[in-house]
Structure formats: C-alpha cells, structure tokens
Amino acid sequence: MRYRRRAAIVAAAAAAALVFAGCAQSGGETGEGGAGTESGDKMYIALVSKGFQHQFWQAVKKGAEEKAAELGVEITFEGPAAETEVDAQLQMLQTAIDKGPDAIGYAALDPEACIPLYEQAEEKKIPIAQFDAPCDSDYGANLSATDSLKAGALAAQHMAELIGDSGKIAIVGHSQINSTGVERRDGFVNEMKDNHPNIEIVDIQYGDGDHLKSADIAKAMLAAHPDLKGIYGTNEGSAIGVVNAVKELGLEPGKVTIVGFDSGAAQVNAIKDGTMAGAITQDPIGIGKSVVESAYKLAKGETVEEFIDTGSYWYDKTNIDDPEIAAVLYE
C-alpha cells in the first residue's frame, strides 16, 4: 500500500508499552499517555471512521464491537454523516485524542489534513492503528484494509470480460483525495491500459459517493457518449448513482454494463434484477475486527503487521448465494 511510515513499528510499540504501563489510573480520568479509560478498568480504544451513511461502516462497527467483546476492551465508534465532511472527522479525532485513550483507530478521509493531529497523538504517546485508509504520517503504525489497487484491477478484469474486451467505458469515482478512491480508480485504469488495449476510458468524474451527484454524472456521461458500453462505480454511493441513472433514463437492464464496489442491499438487489452486472465486495466485519486487535496489541506494546489485507471478492448473479460470498456481503 502507498502510505508513508517510519520503519519503526517496534519503536512505536515500545513507546506504547510505556504508555500502557502507566495506565493504572482509575475513575476514567484523562491524561497523557493513553490513561483515559471510559470505565477505569477496561482498556479504552477510540475508533473514528469515514462515515456512517453507508452499510459498509455499520458492518465495520459490528466487527469492531465483536472483537472488543472478545478481548474485553471498551470502544467508541463514530464518523461524520458524509464522507465529504473532513472537518467534522478531524474534530472527532481531536476529541478522541483529548480523551487520552489507550489507543486510537482511524480511517482518514484526507490523508494530509490529519498529520497535525497525528503529531498530537505522538506527543501524548497514544498509538494509532489505521483502517480502510491511512494518514500520510509516519506515526500511524499499521493499516487494516482492502488492497484497493488489487480490487480495482479485479473490477477491470470482469468489466473487460463482460463487454467483450473492447469499447468505451467511464468511471464514476467517489474521491480523488483519499486512498481508497484513488487506488480503486488507479487499479482499474492501470489494468485496462496494461492488458486491455481495445477498451477506452472516455471519462472519469467524481460524485463524492453521493447517490444524487453520481446519478447526474452518469446521465451526463451517457448523453455525451451514447455508445458507452460500461460504467464503473468505485463505492456504494457511486455505483447506486449509476444504477439510478440507468433506471431514470429508461434503459433496459444490461444495456450499459455496470460494475460496482461494496455490497449494500441496493447493490445486491440491482445485481439480482440485472441492472448491475456485478461488484467487488470487501470484508468490513474483518476490517473492524482487525483494527481493534491491532490497536489492542499496540496499547500492550506488542508488534503489529504493517499492512493487513482483509480481502476483496467479485460477486454477481452466479455466486451471490455461495456461502463464501454471502459471508462478506453487508446488506
């Protein structure tokens, strides 16, 4: 994954060990060095996600809560109302730091805006485990996430197969700032350039993961390129926006091949009714479990893996009911 960090996970963990050793304060007091537990007895981990509006984040929350119960730690889980609300997310991170938890889990919306707050966490010796998308700081110890470049390439391979390996296609992205949006786009684009020379990507636009914005973008694309064979939506909101655009235009299911990302109920239904050809699903429950476990280990002074790939999977009508796929759908 493309994120900067020092080659010092062990050093960060050692610092965290000193923090944990000094965490014997009771009564839930907040102080430097991660001494602020909510209950005074349990380890406390504060998780700040990218949002709450998509089923993906609810599934991450579920996984985090399951792992927290297993480990006997206390967590809080919050995120802004929309994945465009960078300032709101940064305020949540600031609040988390001010509480002085034993560790923080963070999924960065803006990889640069979070750097000063990471510096604050480092000064207070609060370890940070990252999930879904990293901050461009040396302090973040690790990342639990889907390999988005690999997942984007997988989406491209299936798109190419579905459209006969030739023709014009377009991309409705959800972000050109945070790493998931960039890498899901780049993985897709690079696969097409490297291995599918007869496929032309005629347009790439960004709808911020918003259904309405993404639908308007898709309709404009289809008007500008009436011979468009396929559209790729890089997250739940982007993909459903494309689906809605096709329906609003009255196009027959399959007229435009739609490949999506994520697996909320609306996408699952669109695949079942033939409007969407297929999509990439992640394992958000696994991401939630992984970030809590990583944060727990860091707070105890243990080492963690630099990058934990939680997996990506193609699903369509042919395999949507397979037990392996059903286990990673989050409708």
Distance between the termini: 27 Å
Overall radius of gyration: 21 Å
CATH architecture of the largest domain: 3-Layer(aba) Sandwich
Label the overall shape: elongated
Q: Runs with pLDDT <50, length 5+?
A: 1-33, 35-39
Looking across the biggest beta sheet, what order are the strands in?
2-1-3-4-5-11
Q: What would your notes on this structure say?
A:
The protein is of the alpha/beta class and 331 residues long. It has 2 domains: 9-146 and 284-311, 3-Layer(aba) Sandwich (Rossmann fold), CATH 3.40.50.2300; 148-281, Rossmann fold, CATH 3.40.50.2300. Helix content is 42%, strand content 18%. The chain has 11 helices and 12 strands. The protein has helices spanning 9-21, 55-71, 86-99, 115-123, 148-162, 179-195, 211-224, 236-248, 265-272, 284-299, 323-326; strands spanning 44-48, 74-78, 103-106, 128-131, 142-145, 167-173, 199-206, 228-233, 257-261, 278-281, 307-309, 313-316. The strands form 2 sheets. Strands 2-1-3-4-5-11 form a 6-stranded parallel beta sheet, sandwiched between helices. The chain has a 6-stranded mixed beta sheet with strand order 7-6-8-9-10-12, with helices on both faces. α7 crosses α8 (236-248). The chain is elongated. Residues 1-33 and 35-39 have low confidence and may be disordered.
SSE inventory with pairings:
Elements lengths: L8 H13 L22 E5 L6 H17 L2 E5 L7 H14 L3 E4 L8 H9 L4 E4 L10 E4 L2 H15 L4 E7 L5 H17 L3 E8 L4 H14 L3 E6 L2 H13 L8 E5 L3 H8 L5 E4 L2 H16 L7 E3 L3 E4 L6 H4 L5
Parallel strand pairs: 1-2, 1-3, 3-4, 4-5, 5-11, 6-7, 6-8, 8-9, 9-10
Antiparallel strand pairs: 10-12
Helix pairs in contact: 2-10, 5-6, 7-8
